[in-house]
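U., I forgot to send this yesterday:
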Amino acid sequence: MRIDLHTHSTASDGTDTPAELVRNAAASGLDVVALTDHDTVGGHAEARAALPDGLTLVTGAELSCRIDGVSLHLLAYLFDPDEPELARERELVRDDRMPRAQGMVAKLQELGVPVTWERVAAIAGDGAVGRPHVASALVELGVVPTVSDAFTPQWLANDGRAYVDKHELDPFDALRLVKAAGGVTVFAHPQAVKRGACVPESAIAELAAAGLDGIEVDHMDHDGPTRARLRGLAADLGLLATGSSDYHGSRKTCRLGEYTTDPEIYGEIVRRATGAFPVPGAGG
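Result:
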């Protein structure tokens, strides 16, 4: 089985619609794909309706969190999307995205970059606007060559010159909320150092003690030594070690299935979940 547990659609900051994403996942030879848009489940219904025969959909979301001033992302799988407290927190984060992006545009303009809010909003379309949309505008203007190159201290990295804070969950609260909604949690790209400051391993240990289920080990932002170190940390802390592409369509260079999760780990995630179940494709 080929299992990719971290992808994004136009419901947040990807360039594939949810329907296109599941079709592309099947065409890429995946057996299981998780749709984990940022702080939203808005793409799940379309993905279900278009799900090809032979592909299983794992519903999820990537939750924006912050601990001790450092941002982190928590992948939440197979939770009940209607659980009211978790739904309310997702809405708070989403509602903060537009003023935050407008603030980044204003900072870029102060730095002499001729970016406009109208263009960023057009790039985002119906999705939840975020930094990748601002980064795409910078690529269009020739300020940076790729979206990834915008995530540096010079521009949009955490605490970068044009960075603006947003409402983010306390990760311990997020763990509690996801667990109450029957979901399973995995710390996304915990050592993606190019994006800015990362939480220390001591904090990962505290999250593990509070109920974190796993950490994303195999990821494009982790080099070989980092993956080896994280795999050892997962073993020491009794955490599941996952692998994922973090696919964003054409917005990033990563491919669907570039990194994958071991079937036994996937089976354990499904076993632990009680809020929702994987959706088998029926030829949508």
